[in-house]
Amino acid sequence: MVAKVINDVKQNRGFYIWMAFLLAVFGVAGVAAILVWTRGLEVTGLSNEVPWGLWITVDLSAVALGSGSFAVAGLVYLFGAKRFAAVSRVALLIGFLADTGTALVLLLDLGRPDNFYHPIIYWNTKSLLWVITWSVILYITILLIELAPVLTESKLFARWPIVHRIGEEIHKATPVAAFMGVVISIIHLSATGATYGILRGRPVWFDPAMPVIFLVSGIFAGISFLIMVIVVTSWVMRRRLVDPNLLDQLARIAGWVGVTCGIIRVIDLSANHYFSYKPFLGESINLLYNMTPYSLALTLGEFAFGLIIPLAIFFNPTVRVRFRNLVLAGVGATTGLLLCRWNVTLTGLVATVSYSPSAPSINFFSYFPTWVEWAAVAGVLAYAGMVYTLAVRFLPIFGAEGEEEETELAAERHHAPVVAA
Amino acid sequence: MAAHSKEISNEKLPPLSRRDFLKLLGIAGVSTAVAKVVVDSPLFPYHSVVAAPGARPSLHSWAMVIDLENCIGCDRCTYACQATNNLPDDIHWNVVTPEVTSMGKEYFLPRPCLHCENPPCTDVCPVGATYKREDGLVVMDYDKCIGCRYCQVACPYGARSFNWSPPEPGSYSPEYGDPEVEQRPRGVVEKCTFCIHRIDAGLAVGLTPGEDVEATPACCNACPAEARFFGDLNNPNSRVSRLIAERAYVRLRDELGTASRVYYLLPQGGL
Hints:
The complex is a heterodimer of chains A (421) and B (271).
Chain A: H1 2-11, H2 13-39, H3 54-65, H4 68-77, H5 85-109, H6 118-121, H7 128-152, H8 161-171, H9 174-197, H10 210-237, H11 244-273, H12 281-291, H13 296-314, H14 323-350, E1 351-353, E2 362-364, H15 371-394, H16 408-420
Antiparallel strand pairs in A: 1-2
Helix pairs in contact in A: 2-15, 3-5, 3-10, 3-14, 4-5, 4-9, 4-10, 5-7, 5-15, 7-8, 7-9, 9-10, 10-11, 10-14, 11-13, 13-14
Chain B: H1 2-12, H2 18-40, E1 62-67, H3 76-84, E2 95-100, E3 106-111, H4 120-124, E4 130-132, E5 138-140, H5 150-154, E6 160-162, E7 189-191, H6 196-204, H7 218-222, E8 228-232, H8 239-246, E9 249-250, E10 262-265
Parallel strand pairs in B: 1-10
Antiparallel strand pairs in B: 1-8, 2-3, 4-5, 6-7, 9-10
């Protein structure tokens, strides 16, 4: 037994170093979490003027990056493109990690974590936060149903055939569950945008297009992120995990979603800042331009990294053949999404309108996350990384275990002629 | 030619079967249900400015009138509030800020919670911990609150405070706490209640809030400059009703449709 473990450590040294690193991050994050739960939210950089901060941004980004799961489920079960079932398990796993990570961060962000279950028993159906809470709960349940066969098919349960049969029974519900998952995810993603879009007291946020922008940009970043994760995983494992042709088709779909996202963004920006006048909106934005790097830099960055670079790659068949270009596009889209969410969550909080009846003005507040907030975020990222690594190594995420043993080089060679044809 | 062939193809269609009819009925029912859900949902932009249909007329409709001409900015309303509601020193339910009119005249603007008729905060609370009472007062249920702070983000007036640290007795309130007001734990949001503990207790023994000191919010009692009045808008003879009828007033950020219950009488010369 011990000899087996030592042999495994020798063979997969990278795996164990990575795990040790993640465990170290967990340690720091655990200290941060204990601090938050014992001393309360005063250990964060939040204040009455800026009550939401880094954690909410991370939640919104995680939900968006996990949206590749319902995009793929929709492709497979609603549009009947069964070939994408090959990437559905990894997509669902990313969605699961994103939503459970969101739930973990939300648990830290609550002033009364002991009352976390209240949205389940006390309903206020008008509240978007209630919608989001229920979406997270329902979608995690649905993902568990869809992912059940992955667990029950694994070698862990090989000696109890009953587990395998239970998994198959649960799997029969997958088409219905997938449909429900698509519906709930669309509500969930757009509700994250509407959370800000309905706040009429804050001119920077109040915008009926917010739910649509969050939905479309989320799907775009979600698919790009999924492609990136698949490629990076196949690099690390030195195996061909997914048919390169399939990734090529996914990249094309992501490209069209990205174009839709860009069109909606441009229409929304011009409608708000050029074709109409919303009280205090222009003033707030001007103040932000003058006093901070927020907003303008973030918006430009979002367009450059989040749309122009990925679209240039996704729409160029000779460029998107190369795996490293797909990764570049994924990094760009992810960066763009983070900038977009950070832009939305922060600008409306730091620039608010005063209530003075004679001379209404824009108030400016500042916010800097403390190490506790960063550590908690790192901990949740480490959680996602650890579960993903363990799942890819020990569970049949990419087809059956041991199948398709090919090197990265072979994958690249295999890739090129398919697209050239 | 094309139209002709279309007609022929139409004739070939089989007549509507009972099954089809039931299907159509089902689709109609589902669409109605979906439309109803959409109209009632928070994404529908038009309902919150309109008063809820069939809302029960309440016996009372509390309101506060603040005379910007008379206010001298002495902050006694704030001190009375801190003492009565047992507030720690870093939380203020009532704040007084110096302001300047467009004519350059200085005045003071006290701001309690405005108790909006269409409160943005109650719509966003995921657990319904903050809600509007029948008499129009927007209050908190501290036991339900999960401390998500969405109401703070939604309030256009910054009238809500979060308990970042465990509550400590403030400089103005007794160390043992005021037993009449509910104590707030760490991690919940709190705000001005118009002193519901005084209003409700006063009504129970037959007093009139706004006229009898025992049943009136502490800030109005403490005001030495006749700048702050409280009363019932349902009673046309109450002091607040008469002041609103006689003098020009403004409500803060009325363009948002919040329809707040705090009326500010304009200083001389206007704002």
